[in-house]
């Protein structure tokens, strides 16, 4: 089976179009979106419409869940923008996506098997998001088993082989290559490049993984973020890095 997996579009319609064009050329057997579809200062409504129009499977991210709120009160800035730019049907569609996907040795979820906000493959060190080792990742998985485990949430592309033979893949982010998280502990996540990311996985007697980084018009996306009052997003979209906290 050939699988394309992507995550964390965050309302970046231009980046999503670019990876879907590439995926169409690859003609995989299955395409899975790992969630966080619309939250961000870009094109949430257009992004949801495109995701609904293509023949792919989805799991729900933490921001998709948040957008099911009856009102935007208490939501963060990116979620509030998306909530106000989505109609009730789109918000309900996002909220009602399944939290996990299981199929023939494949297990997909947004962040961790039991939480859509807890990093699986990463840990915070010196206010930066870095990679956890294989033993730590295995301990977080507990008794969960599967040949291929796919997660997103951190926006960092990664491939990890565990001692039991399982392979864990994070495809990175389609539409948000860096962010500054002010929650406890505060940290930044930086992919280091503005490209839209996804992964091509071939499941046969062994598992082969190709991380893809696709160019698109990130300058146009950055201008949209700037116009919507988010210079932090504009910087991240152009560079794949987060702005210094003092900026």
UniProtKB/TrEMBL annotation:
- A Pfam family that this protein carries is Metallophos_2
Under the GO molecular function aspect, what terms does this record hold?
A: phosphatase activity
**Gene3D superfamilies xref list:** 3.60.21.10
**UniProt domain Calcineurin-like phosphoesterase: residue ranges:** 1-179
- Which superkingdom is the protein from? Bacteria
Q: Which SUPFAM superfamilies does the protein's record reference?
A: Metallo-dependent phosphatases
> Which GO cellular component does the record give, naming just one?
cytoplasm
Give the record's family classification.
Answer: Belongs to the metallophosphoesterase superfamily. YfcE family.
* This protein's name: Predicted phosphodiesterase
